[in-house]
């Protein structure tokens, strides 16, 4: 009974972190960015994006770390230890194959997030702070924006793969 309770708690925290991560990305893309792109906010656009982005970055990375930790915990609590995960038979079966796809997608999400936060987003913020209307600033903002969208799509793919892990493939 205690293992079931621990597993339930771990899954709950895992889902909460996924909701926080994906929900914040959707909110940022659907609510925050369209509003701060309005002409009346042009003079404070860079400052708003920097401030909101900094807060989101903390939530995002904490969520990613929690997802990784609870994901490992969930596998262990389901009985998938290192010995089982080390076998080719595990990875060739349906659950293992779906888990492999999910793990690849997670790695891509982490890499895309790091590239956005450290390289492209930072470059866009520097250029926007210098001259928000320059072609370089607009291009950097566009690239960072597209990378953010790709990260959201990859995150949604991870979510779908998680559903398939638990519920099985639809075919």
Polypeptide structure, described:
The chain has 171 residues and is mainly α. Helix content is 86%, strand content 0%. It contains six helices and no strands. Helix 1 packs antiparallel against helix 6 (135-167) and helix 5 runs antiparallel to helix 6. The protein is elongated and about 55 Å long. The relative contact order is 0.12. The model has no long low-confidence stretch (mean pLDDT 91).
List the SSEs and their pairings.
Layout: H1 2-36, H2 45-77, H3 82-85, H4 88-92, H5 94-130, H6 135-167
Helix content: over 70%
Choose one word for the global shape. Answer: elongated
Give the helix/strand class.
mainly alpha
Radius of gyration: 19 Å
Quote the average pLDDT. 91
Regions with little confidence, pLDDT below 50 for 5+ residues? none
Number of helices: 6
String of helices and strands: HHHHHH
Main sheet record = none
The separation of the N and C termini measures 33 Å
Please provide the count of β strands: 0
In terms of DSSP E residues, the strand content is under 5%
């Amino acid at each position: 009974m205690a293992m079931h309770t621990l597993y339930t708690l771990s899954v709950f925290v895992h889902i909460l972190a996924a909701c926080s991560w994906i929900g914040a990305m959707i909110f940022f893309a659907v609510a925050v960015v369209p509003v701060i792109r309005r002409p009346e906010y042009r003079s404070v656009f860079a400052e708003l994006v920097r401030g909101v982005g900094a807060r989101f970055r903390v939530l995002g990375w904490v969520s990613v770390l929690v997802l990784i930790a609870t994901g490992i915990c969930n596998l262990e609590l389901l009985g998938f230890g290192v010995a089982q995960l080390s076998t080719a038979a595990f990875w060739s079966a349906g659950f293992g194959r779906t888990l492999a796809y999910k793990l690849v997608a997670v790695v891509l999400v982490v890499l895309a997030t790091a590239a956005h936060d450290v390289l492209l987003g930072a470059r866009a913020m520097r250029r926007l702070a210098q001259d928000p209307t320059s072609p370089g600033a607009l291009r950097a903002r566009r690239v960072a924006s597209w990378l953010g969208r790709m990260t959201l799509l990859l995150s949604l793919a991870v979510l779908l793969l998680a559903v398939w892990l638990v519920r099985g493939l639809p075919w």
